[in-house]
Amino acid sequence: MSRTIRVTVRGVFDGLSESQLAELVAEQADHDFLHTAYTADGYLAYDLPARPFFTFRFADHVDEENQIPQAAARAEAKAAAWMAGRGYPVKDLTSQTVDMSVVPLGKRGRREADKSLARPPKL
User: What is the 3-state secondary structure of 3-33?
Assistant: First the structure.
């Protein structure tokens, strides 16, 4: 059974130059916290110059629970590579994972699941 894993990687911009800071601030609308999504490529969100912190959100899939740490390591490596590829110095990368197969459905999710079970399959 495939498990969807959400990985949140957090870190700190470390010693950005004035031009790097200006570049990130100019692109900030594309990295807004209000429009975050978990994607295979990752979604970067930050709020510069108010805070030097950033968050990357990644979606991954694993077959077994014991593969979740590797998903976290892959996400951290992707985030570090993205930052290094643009020359942004970062530090203190940490990650947190959520196995979506064990997250309980909320009221809306249960209602949608009940609807899909009540419908006959489309042929």
Answer: EEEEEEEEEEECCCCHHHHHHHHHCHHHHCH
Residues composing the chain: 123
3-state secondary structure of 56: strand
Distance from C-alpha of 40 to C-alpha of 70, rounded to nearest angstrom: 14
pLDDT of 103-114, one tens digit each? 766 666 666 655
**Domains, in order of start, for the chain:** 3-118 (3.30.70)
**Contacts (Cβ under 8 Å, ≥6 apart) of 24:** 13, 16, 31, 46, 48, 88
Q: What are 51-67's pLDDT values in tens digits?
A: 999 999 999 999 999 99
Rounded to whole angstroms, how far apart are CA atoms 57 and 38?
5
pTM: 0.81
